[in-house]
Amino acid sequence: MANLELYTERLTLKVLDETFAPVVLDYHQRNREFWREWNPLTPDSFYTLEAQRERLRADMAQLAAGQGLRLHLFQRGDLAQIVGDLGFNNIVRGAFQSCHLGYKIDIGAANQGYITEALRRAIAYAFDELKLHRIEANVMPHNARSRRVVAKLGFAEEGMARKYLKINGAWEDHIHYVMLNDAV
Question: I want to staple 52 with a disulfide (CB 3.0 to 4.6 A). Which of 21, 92, 155, 175 is the partner?
Answer without folding.
Answer: 21
